[in-house]
Amino acid sequence: MGADISGWVARVSLMGLLVASGMVRLAAAGGQYPGKVDQESVWLVDVNLSVGGVLRMPAGPAAFSGDDEPQQEDGPGAASGLTVAVTEQPIRAESHLSFHQRPAGLADSGESVLPGAVRQYQQAEARLTVGDTETTVSLASDAEFVHVRGDKGSLQAWLAEGFLTQAEHDLIVVPFDPLLAAALKPPADATSGDTWAIDQEAAAGLLCIDAVTAGRVDATIGEAADNASVSEVLLTGTIAGAVAGVPTAIEVHGTYDWSRGTGLTALVVDLRETRQPGHVAPGFQVEARLTVNCRPATGAEPAKRLAKVSVVSTGAGGRFRRGPGRPGGRWLVDPHARYDLIYPDAWHLIEQGGERATLRLIDRGALIGEVVIRPLPPTDTPLTLEALQGDIERSLAEQFSHLVAAAESQRSDGTTILRVASAGEDAGLPFEWIHYHVSAADGPRVSLSFMVESRHRQRFAEADMRLVEGLFLPPQ
Asked: Which of 122, 249, 251, 354 is the most exposed place for a label (fewest CB within 10 A)?
């Protein structure tokens, strides 16, 4: 259970308000910097998040259950029927983000010509305690400059010349991110006492969930100072929604200030959320307080720094991040620098240790596939495709039914890839296993074992090949 808790801790850097990775929707847009940034376009943002409550983790290893189809097959936020035995652990956490932000691209006039923004983080850290396990998650020094962009209410973050780890991405994607704050804009003719409903899709983005399925969040103007600003806008509501197919219920109570010229300036929100455990993250019952303050930056230095192209140095384990960066990707690096992986964010990192990493693929709430990645010791004797087939048949034993496909290929860098797909049955369910043996010309080796329930094989498609394409074995 200790390994499971450590894995979940790495996933809850948002203090229980877990961010669900959506399907990859965004086009590549990294690396765009203006030659000049006006001081007036740079803002300083401070975010504080405090959480307390109970984390509800599966009592044993989660597994394919045969009942994980979404209730609404075509809905991105459809809730699954998953039920699992759980164990509860108290959770306490504090998070602080501080960054300067400018529009992603500016014309000579100073107006934004590209969506999103570029941020320079002065601080990004979360301190988390789950039961007796304590951890600190922070943004690495080479991830100081981050591109952020919203799409259909969700937020993506990446680097100009690299990718964030899952923990880094979850750390900086918080509820009520200022980049999504346009959803809070009062109607042009609103006056004191007027109430309107926040758009459901926008509310899902503000609350870091996939979809709102019921309920609403209302905004009410308490005081309109003048035509240029509105203060004490009240936020109240209760919504039901879903994250990666898992049901969640959220109560919202808070206030914010809005300037008609510059947007959100201050926000204080109390959140109460109850989320069920799922295939890729624990459930929880928490209460949280979030504060956001936005103000124009002082001095010319922030604008000068944000006008420069960020240079990626080294990240976790002294490894260089591979790029160029783009939305929708994550970076996984082996603790002992034996491999690193760029993978689509439809995959979720479940567990990472010194000898294995496990990721799961979720599509519209259903568990589609799982992969276990294991570094292998170097050898002077290359593994043959026939030997791999024999090893797989012996390891699957009574689960093995028949061979589906076997192939050998080689990359331009000399990396050899052996792929063997086989069919069989596990716990009464038909499965397909796809095994890879990836070896570099100078010795480093990695195995990848995919497991796909047969009824999801068409939806899984070539997800294994796409993931293996992002695997890199460094020279030894």
From this structure: 354
Instruction: Copy the structure tokens of residue 232.
Output: 């004490």
Torsion-angle region of 318 (φ positive above 0: left; ψ -120 to 50: alpha; else: beta): left
The pLDDT of residue 92: 95
| E-state strands within 9-111 | 43-58, 86-106
Among candidate residues 459, 463, 458, the one with its CA nearest the CA of residue 436: 463
Low-confidence ranges of the chain (pLDDT < 70): 1-40, 58-85, 105-115, 151-153, 224-230, 308-319
Burial of 407 (0-12, 13-18, 19+ CB in 10 A): exposed
Whole-prediction pTM value?
0.84
Residues 6 or more apart in contact with residue 264 via CB below 8 angstroms: 178, 181, 184, 256, 257, 258, 292, 294
Number of independent structural domains in the chain: 2
Q: Which residue has the tokens 């990718």?
A: 163
- Considering only CA atoms, give the Rg of the chain: 23
**466 and 377 housed in the same domain:** yes
Dmax over CA atoms of the chain, in Å, equals: 78
Token duo for residue 303: 């604008």
Three-state secondary structure call for residue 16: coil
Same domain, 302 and 352: no
| Contact of 178 with 264, CB cutoff 8 Å | yes
Residue 68 belongs to a domain:
yes
The pLDDT score that the predictor gives to residue 324 is 85
Structural domain containing residue 302:
2-306
- Domain identity same for 7 and 73: yes
- Residue 369 sits in a domain of what CATH number? 3.40.1000.10
In a domain, 297, yes or no: yes
- For the chain, the straight-line distance linking the first and the last C-alpha, in angstroms and rounded, comes to 34
What burial letters (b/e) apply to 18-44, b meaning 16+ CB within 10 Å?
A: bbbbbeeebeebbbebbeebeeebbbb
Regarding whether 124 and 74 lie in a shared domain, the answer is: yes
DSSP element (H, E) containing 371: strand 366-376
CATH number assigned to the domain comprising residue 175: 2.30.230
Residue 89 lies in a domain: yes
Same domain flag for 243 and 358: no
Asked whether 445 and 376 are in contact (CB, 8 A), the reply is yes
**Residue 465 in tokens:** 């090949």
The C-alpha atoms of residue 168 and residue 177 are separated, in whole angstroms, by 16
Same domain, 300 and 350: no
Sign of CA dihedral 8, 14, 18, 22: negative
Residue of 98, 32, 100 lying closest to 325 (CA atoms): 32
